[in-house]
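Troubleshooting entry. The earlier prediction with iron/sulfur cluster gave an output that would not parse, so I re-checked the input for stray whitespace and re-submitted. Clean input:
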Amino acid sequence: MITGPIKFKEAARRNLAAQDLRENLRRATSHSTTLRLKAVSAVPEWEDLRSEAHAIKKEAIDHLAEYLERFESQATEAGCKVYWAETASQAAEYVVNVCRQKGASLVVKAKSMTSEEMELNTALEGASIQPVETDLGEFIVQLAGETPSHITAPALHKSRTQIGKLFSEKLGMNFSDDPKELTRAARAILREKFMDAGIGITGVNFAVAETGSLVLITNEGNGRMCTTLPRTHIALMGIEKVIPRFDDLRVFLKLLARSSTGQKLTSYVTILNGPREARETDGPEELHVVILDNGRSQLLAHPHTREALYCIRCGACLNVCPVYQRVGGHSYGWVYPGPIGSVITPELQGISQAQELPFASSLCGHCSAVCPVKIDLHHMLLWLRKSAVDSALTSRGERWIIKLFAATMKRPGLYRWSGMLGWMVQRILAPRGKGLRVPCWSAGRDFPPLPKKSFHQLWEEGEIN
Ligand code: SF4
């Protein structure tokens, strides 16, 4: 829960000054974007798949109530217990109650951004239940006492050396920055936890209305351990995770792994249809599905931003965003960072709480170009900026500057005159051959020197043809 307005600018300034962090972000995001590009280039029908995915998501979101009810009915018939939570705290309370009823003092968790939204670990710890993150990235950030900085790669902000130091400090092992050794150490701890845990908690990548199936897409096998070893499994999903038909997975499975990690397919695709049946040898005895709204219905009602509900959480828009690449996920102040976070955080938490986020973008459009479900992210950010201005959430000085700029751009005479005025001011105030020093602006970049003649003058005088 956000307790006050998100201070993106302040956090971004701090993170920009952290050289290690910038290097970690640069290395990780450039690696991901290279892998994605290679994987996508090998699929000639990529654009057709994106259009198909967009159409399927549109159908699902346009008929959301209908598909959710069908999913609930199918999942219930398969033996699941379905709980509808309007708020994140209701969802967390339900999970805590199930843990209490089952007498579980230890739960193992697979990666779930919905559980971050619910602040589930805090709620469980408050009830003396120990949550253990079993995804390696989540395990690292839990050990560090941090939150994930990326949708699919929670510890992307850390280097191997930093992780080695963390393991040595918290787990008492000899320092090593060898990924294999670090993974082996984490695995040894986690195997024990899987065996002891009374409850496994996971997210959901897709919920199929037609069959009531839950689909989990993972790379480490921890999701499968969480869903098969403990006696009770609790799956957490936002209302937007529903898709109409089982056959739709054909499209999403091709898009998701390639967009996220550059893989053709993730190592594990787990499809669950209810809890263990009498004839089956493994699987949980009880399967609870928590369906969370937490502001998504409001998003659904907004024609300009409702397509944000099409998101399949691949993380591609984060990896290519020039802002995310430099400031990292923790600058965004809530669970979802990057361009998609800058759209959904103001919508789910209120624009007054997140007014700086729509401005955390260069509007280059790269996010929209890579999105596998064709979400028009940068135009949504532009619309949210307008919404912040209309709500008088930007500073008075900024509003005056924009009004002056708009008035100047509408009047050619005034525009030409202001160009000449600017050039004269520059001659008087700026050092020779250099740009003006403009308060705030020049603190982080150069103000380009104004030319003596405008493009219009050069054109009229025949210097351009
Ligand atoms: S908005 Fe698109 S690119 Fe970004 S995480 Fe969601 S699906 Fe991926």
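This one parsed fine. Residues 151, 259, 311-317, 340, 370-373, 375, 377 surround iron/sulfur cluster (CB under 6 Å).
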